[in-house]
Amino acid sequence: MSGPRSARRSGLRRLALLSALLVALLPGASPDAEAEPDTEPGERYSNLQTEIMLHPMDGFSGHTLRKNEIIYNQSPFTLPLPSWFWWGATDWLTVEFDSLPLLGGLLVEPHLPVPSFNLRFRLFRGSGRQPSLAFETMWQHLWRPYAQEDREHLLVEREGSTVFARVNLSQPLSEHLSVHLSAGATWTQSARIENRGRDTFHGRTLDNSITPDASIALDWRVHPRVSLHASASYGTTFTYSDNQPRKMQALYGLRLAPFYRSDWSILRYLRMELPAYVIYWQDAREMTSFPVPLFPFVYWQWQL
Predict the structure, then answer these.
(1) Residue 39, exposed/middle/buried by CB under 10 A (0-12, 13-18, 19+)?
(2) Span of the secretion signal (predicted)?
């Protein structure tokens, strides 16, 4: 979620074009004849107060999707390639397919898909004020050294496999307010984290290293159309600057479901996450931030 502002504007234009094409071409993107106006917001239509969230603002929840529930996520900065999607294989197992590296790996040497998969297993589903508990693990393998962060004063380069495993807990505090806690560890086959262009060099190389991960997130579903989120984490995260060990990160922002009662399914299932963030790489002693939640990634969440 970082880069020149011109790249952001270009990405948003591409996303607008993609949305227009989806409206015109996708099955089910036309008005749904069975959809009827609702008298009570959230009573019939899925919305932000009723939907499962897996990684709200890069936190880790203790929930899994329902069987055959789908979430397709699209970042404007990866277009025209798709980003990633989730599938509820069962009520207790949710599977993620990282389509960007799987397809993008074909475009660069050695022209092989980059394996990248995430599994989340439900351990306990709470009801009411009871907590929900899940185990989550992810594996990604980079065939060649890849500069994931390539900035003026920062380099984060990874190679080989990265695996994380963690336990996630979601505790409801009220009907629409929850806290998400997560802890675990990451094994990194090879990573280089260092500054550059500075008078003093700071950096670290990780080889077959195991490092701790932990995060806390707050999740407030204030309205069927709007939810507010904040998170703080140490170590590996899933969404922003993902799979990078030993980084410190704080985010706040919101999710939107602006058209959740629309007769058009492509609009009814459309969701957005708008983050503001600060990320600190302690090994390089470098930081990046974006203080205002302006640039979203979008996703569609629906039940097959």
Answers:
(1) exposed
(2) 1-35
Longest dimension (CA), the chain: 65
Are the C-beta atoms of residues 198 and 234 closer than 8 Å to each other?
no
Peptide bond into 110 cis (omega under 30): yes
The residues that bridge with 157 in the sheet, in sequence order, are 147, 192
Read off the pLDDT band of 68 (50, 70, 90).
Answer: very high
The hierarchical CATH code for the domain 5-30+60-303 is 2.40.230
Q: What is the mean pLDDT of the segment spanning 62-80?
A: 94
Domain ranges of the chain: 5-30+60-303
Residue 42 has a pLDDT of 39
For 90-155, the DSSP string reads: SSSEEEEE-HHHHHHGGGSTT-----EEEEEEEEE---TT--EEEEEEEEEEEEEEEEEEE-SSEE
Coil vs helix vs strand at 47:
coil
Tell me, what's the pLDDT at 103? 87
| Entry pTM | 0.85
User: Per-residue pLDDT averaged across 205-219, rounded?
Assistant: 98
Query: 146-160, pLDDT tens digit by residue?
Result: 999 999 999 999 999
**Can you read off the two tokens belonging to residue 29?**
């993107």
10 Å CB burial of residue 43 (0-12, 13-18, 19+) is exposed
Return the structure tokens found at 182.
């997560």
